[in-house]
Amino acid sequence: MDKQKVIFKDLGIIEYKAAWDYQETLLNENVQIKSAIRNAASSHDSNLTTTNYFLLCEHPPVYTLGKSGKKENVLMNDDELAANDIAFFNTNRGGDITFHGPQQIVGYPILDLEKYYTDIGKYLRNLEEMVIVTLSEYGIKGGRSKGETGVWIDEDIPGRERKICAIGVRCSRWITMHGFALNVNTDLGYFTHIIPCGIQNKQVTSMEKELGYTVDYNEVKEKIKRNFEKIFESEMTG
Q: What distance lies between CA 87 and its chain's CA centroid?
């Protein structure tokens, strides 16, 4: 099978809402193309095709709540959020509450899964695998916690389970958006003001905390890109 072409864009430090709006634009463009393809099927117009994107970025401090989440999992009121300069958004992704902030790699794949496989479960597992493989290059053993999306460390040891990467996605007409958030040198103090992912009594960690030193953020981004290409059998452009 030929490798899928994926346009890569590093958005740098960008406000959460701006990145969300951009994702929505790319998703909607692809959904419209899919409609046009169906309408043009009888004329055999082969020039129409959807476009895959892989966006990486970093957000100023923000808590985001998934559509199945509960606001009570945010342990700060609106005044406290404002006083600490932390934004808050209800989102249309899956999952509960999470934090995005500096030195965290946030990835937003905008993929047409009909070009890959029409299986959301497999897509989520592959996102996890991409992170697990990346962590392994630093000697960190990431794994999966049964019934909980994301990447964990010591997930089978009660009391020691800690999450290093959160994952939450949305899919419309097999076009994906939202994605993953990997804690590299993230200030974990922000997680003390929420019940991360709505999961009680489990910790959150970062690559920096696990390794005991500040990790080269840009190096991790490059490894994420390369492992995305391998796991998703894709070729980055741009």
A: 18
Alpha-carbon distance of 43 to 180, in angstroms, equals 39
The string of pLDDT tens digits covering residues 117-170 is 999 999 999 999 999 999 999 999 999 998 889 999 999 998 899 999 999 999
Phi, psi of 115 (to 5 degrees): -90, -10
Q: Where are the domains of the chain?
A: 4-237
Task: State pLDDT tens for residues 69-106.
Answer: 888 888 999 999 999 999 999 998 988 889 999 999 99
Q: Which of 57, 165, 171, 197 is catalytic?
A: 197
Q: Is 197 annotated in the active site?
A: yes
* Distance separating alpha carbons of residues 190 and 66, to the nearest angstrom: 18
State how far the Cα of 87 lies from the Cα of 76, in Å rounded to an integer.
11
Superfamily of domain 4-237: Bira Bifunctional Protein; Domain 2 (3.30.930.10)
Burial of 11: CB neighbours in 10 Å, binned 0-12, 13-18, 19+? middle
